[in-house]
Write a structure and sequence with these properties.
This protein has about 210 residues and is of the alpha+beta class. The protein is built from 8 helices and 4 strands, in the order H-E-E-H-E-H-H-E-H-H-H-H.
Amino acid sequence: MKTTPFDRNDHIYENDAFDELVKDAVRFFNGTPVVEMPPAVKFPGVGVYALYFTGKTAPYERYGELNRIKYDYPIYVGKAVPSGWRQARVIPKDNQNTFELNSRLRQHHRTIEKGAGINPVDFSCRFVIFEGVSSSMISTVESALIRLFKPLWNTELDGFGNHDPGKGRYNQARSDWDVIHPGREWAKKCAQSPNQKNTIIQRIRTHMDQLG
């Protein structure tokens, strides 16, 4: 079969309806209740979530001031996808027996418990559960929320959502989050970060000054 001459315009997909669908999901997300971190009741499902700091502890006190008025400033946005998602893009017909979202929030709670200088009681969360084929939107909605809010722990202080890299990978640098909030046992095995603590703190302060 003979190929046609290349024209980039022939390969561009645009659909305003998709953009509106993402915006609608973001609006729905922003209207969901904010609950304790982690939620008191174990629940099934996958989806997108945000964590909010409401305390008075430096260097996050500005987040605390703003979020005590209204939960408009997440410190972290993340996602929990169905099991097998990364390998085979599996879309479950029923999410009633999968607890990835609930588990992810509890993992974050344990991380905060271990991190020096922060207290789990100063954190709350909100989330959206995506059922069935709508779970295909999870990554897109997560990205949209990160672009909208630019949460500190997604941007200037990377590493909060990291997992144990496993034996043989501890030569990688310790994340900036673990430099500021040491405590995770596996992170102690990683190499020292090239970023000095004072430099990281200054980046956090600059981010805080741009809020609100």
